[in-house]
Hints:
Largest sheet: 4 strands, antiparallel
Amino acid sequence: MPSEPSKTLETFSNPKSDRDYTIRIRMPEFSCLCPKTGQPDFATLFLEYVPDKLCVELKALKRYVWAWRDEGAFHEAVTNQILDDLVGAMTPRYARLTARFNVRGGLYTTVVAEHQQPNWTPPAPVTLP
């Protein structure tokens, strides 16, 4: 197989580290297993981050997300673990991971986890006329 799942998150140098800008990545094919039943849980992950010195490499991110498919994890735990792993790999100025899980037993679950560097202040929003 040309590529396989991997929990290794690769990074590359931020090409414009002197500027705050936002990277948004949508991952519609996330799956893991329910730790209680062993049945698959499916979600769309939404990653938004303001990079500092590093950005996450997309193929490595795809393989990382793929690596969860056979692991049992509660929605809250897996969302926070993925954010922790991303922060550990690239130390962004700010990151938000939103995990929107598909319906299970008539319930939809959305988990939002955030990270912010203590010394980072977001820029003021711009309102255009």
